[in-house]
Amino acid sequence: MAWTREEMAARAALELKDGFYVNLGIGIPTLVANYIPKGVDVTLQSENGMLGMGPFPYEGEADPDLINAGKQTITKLPKSSYFSSADSFAMVRGGHIDLSILGGMQVSQNGDLANWMVPGKMVKGMGGAMDLVAGVKRVVVVMDHCEKSGASKLLKQCSLPLTGAKVVDLLITDLGVFEFDRKAAVRLLQPAPGVTVDEILAKSEAEIIVS
Amino acid sequence: MVNKVQSGAAEALAGVLFNGMTIMAGGFGLCGIPENLIAAIRLAGTRNLTVVSNNCGTDDFGLGVLLANGQIKKMISSYVGENKLFEKLYLSGELELEFNPQGTLAERIRAGGAGVPAFFTKTGVGTLAAEGKEVRDFDGHAYVMERGLTADLSIVKAWKGDGEGNLVFRKTARNFNPMMATAGKITVAEVEIMTAVGDLDPDHIHTPGIYVDRILQGAAYEKHIERETTRPREREQA
Lengths: 211, 238
What we know:
Number of helices of chain A: 5
Mean pLDDT of chain A: 96
Order of helices and strands of chain A: HEHEEEHEEEEEHEEEEEHE
Largest sheet of chain B: 9 strands, mixed
Mean pLDDT of chain B: 95
CATH superfamily of chain B: Glutaconate Coenzyme A-transferase
Structural class of chain A: alpha/beta
Largest interface: A-B, 56 and 60 residues
CATH topology of chain B: Glutaconate Coenzyme A-transferase
Helix content of chain A: 10-25%
Radius of gyration of chain A: 17 Å
Shape of chain A: globular
CATH architecture of chain B: 3-Layer(aba) Sandwich
Strand content of chain B: 25-35%
Number of domains of chain B: 1
Order of helices and strands of chain B: EHEHEHEHEHEEEEEHEE
Oligomer: heterodimer
Low-confidence stretches of chain A: none
Helix content of chain B: 10-25%
Shape of chain B: globular
Radius of gyration of chain B: 19 Å
Largest sheet of chain A: 10 strands, mixed
Structural class of chain B: alpha/beta
Number of helices of chain B: 6
Strand content of chain A: 25-35%
């Protein structure tokens, strides 16, 4: 059985280490916060200007001045701090954030990521994604292995405009976990339970090394 | 003595608006936006604006009202996904758009205000964001040159301010406001609470008054929330 969204998030949470400063993207990456392993203390950064992001507020207590990068209302923690967008991206670009978990539209075997634009169709913008993949120490992408049409999203080369070139360290899809050395091929680390290597190879355009 | 304090948003913008100007507007989504000054620009009807702002509001609030009124010619932003009209106007060619990565946008504004004409960043190397720009190697890594950014007018929103133009922001409503305050030829700040000079602790001031030319207390604040997200109250544990 392929992993569900929740199971993908839970697998991604295993990448969190005690003491990490972490930025979580929108979508499945946001769910990762629900699966932080016991005994692991991480500080979540929100790139609109906050370290130490707390949970959603109780009903009736939402503060319009306190939102995350997905524009959702949130709360602070005792350790929280607020800062400007310039300070926030100094943290990101300067390599002070340990881990970034983002969604993806396409990933190529050399670690290129495309997740911000479909020419002529979707014009939303890259937001902070290009800064995050360029500056954060370790980049984990979580996405479905295939499009709804069945086309693979793990490719030899991305066809969509890139968010970053050779930036992905680890990819988690519904079919398994993949590691990148940012060269020619991608290595299958772990198939999802019940998913065969043959199925993964059949559903991937990228060249995959099976160890 | 120069009096920076204005009686309202329209008064604060008197004599500074002109067609074809570049305006920086603080805020992230609808959080920390200068809503009174945006409304005053809407009423003034200034056209052919180039607007520098991380987002473009929503269809019915924030900068979205200037877009709907046909006042914006070009946007420089990082993300405009909350605004359907924006996408429509862009795809039909009625609106120019320059996307900057969010951190690059913040740094361009910081640099502009700090007198730094250009800087190098690894953000966007190998992507559309670096197209047509100089790429240079430093210590074995590729970096793209980005230019500092200034504006004819910056409009910012703070929580508290005083007659000197000193500003204090609140929570994540700070975002782009402090850098934009430094990068406008003229900077107008609106605040929720105007304090007497001396009431703000100098150690707590985020934006020193030198950057602020005019300041006003906003007449009213709607402070819309784009995505109100809450959790149920846990039952009291015995």
